[in-house]
Amino acid sequence: MGCKCHKQKVSESIKLPADKTIVLQADTDEHKRGLVVTWKSDGGYDVAYWYDTPDNIVAAELKGDGKSFGDIKNVWLGYHPKLDERLKKGESGCCHKCGWSHVKGSAHKTPYRTGKNSCANRKSEAKLNKEKFTDPEDMRMNEQRPMPQDTPNEFAYTDFKKWVYKNRKAVKGVLLKALKDNRGDGTYLFLALTQVWLAWANKKAKQWSSVPKYKSPASVKFGRALAVMMKKDNLIITKSGNKLTTVKEATDVWKKFDAMQKLQGHGMDIEMDMKNILATIKQLHKNMEQEAEPEGGKIADKYGKQLDKYEKMYKQRKAELKKVFAKLDKLEQF
């Protein structure tokens, strides 16, 4: 069934600010889903489909003019390829002289746009992109278009902190070195944090690799915002105290490692006890079948009491093991 949305009278309900990621959610109680949209100041729109939570970007079928381009995660919508036709109708269109879009016959806009900034050049780029990325495999090459950020994206941070935890020893080394070279205001630490984010993005999430230029005030601001987020999660930067520049000492890591080792050893002992108890219960059942009175009696009662005793022991050990696993999970989170 073809789309009839062009026959409906529509008006804008949300105005998109330039270079800011906007999360849209479908008005339904069935499942949470929607779109992540960014209007780019340098041209076009980045669009992605999310499911359950906005940070869970999933592939969805991409159709254009009735033709399917396969399942795509991230889409870039470029400039309108027929923009110049509006000039014939007295509508706004690209002016090749001043490089701006305006109504034919109206005054040229200043300052004149030339080269890459000209709307004519952008139109050519849009046409080239359309020709170049018609194949679904080629379109996937454009999926990781970086999104400019002044501060860390909160959805991307969810994946970032998992990566940092796995590489916490190396990250901690980078931050401790920055502190040694540091000025008293934490500038070097914040710059180092921006570079840590960039290292993660370049390796794991190219779409979040557009961060402020190194050693710029904006880069310090980005790193400071990241420090606030990490402090809140007690991730490498100590949560206690008011400072953003207190990196956890290595002894904390070793203490946590020792605690985990002891818990793992205790868990193995409990599992071994449970295995032995199950073997005892199994043997008691065999003996009971061979020795106990079929109609019941003293021997049957004796085995019954023994079975109750060992089954109770098994439940107790199982509960202890559950507590050990819960403690291990808590330690592994940070």
Essential attributes:
single chain; disordered N terminus; 334 residues; Helix Hairpins; elongated; alpha+beta; 5-stranded antiparallel beta sheet
Short description:
With 334 residues, the chain is an alpha+beta fold. The chain contains eight helices and nine strands.
Describe this structure in words.
This protein has three domains: 16-77, no CATH class; 154-248, no CATH class; 251-332, Helix Hairpins. 16% of the residues are buried. Helix 4 (168-180) runs antiparallel to helix 5 and helix 7 (250-291) packs antiparallel against helix 8. The chain is of the alpha+beta class and 334 residues long. Residues 1-7, 82-88 and 123-143 have low confidence and may be disordered. The chain has eight helices and nine strands. The strands form three sheets. Strands 1, 2, 3, 4 and 7 form a five-stranded antiparallel sheet that branches. Strands 5-6 form a two-stranded antiparallel ribbon.
Strand content: 5-15%
What's the average pLDDT?
A: 78
SSE string, helices as H and strands as E: EEEEEEEEEHHHHHHHH
Oligomeric state: single chain
Rounded to an integer in angstroms, the radius of gyration calculated over CA atoms is 32 Å
Judging from the principal axes of the Cα atoms, what is the shape?
Answer: elongated
| Spans where pLDDT lies below 50 across 5 or more residues | 1-7, 82-88, 123-143
| Estimated helix fraction | 40-55%
Number of strands: 9
The total domain count is 3
Topology:
Elements lengths: L20 E5 L7 E7 L5 E7 L1 E6 L1 E5 L2 E6 L1 E4 L14 E3 L6 E3 L15 H14 L3 H5 L13 H13 L1 H13 L6 H18 L12 H16 L17 H42 L6 H35 L2
Antiparallel strand pairs: 1-2, 2-3, 3-4, 3-7, 5-6, 8-9
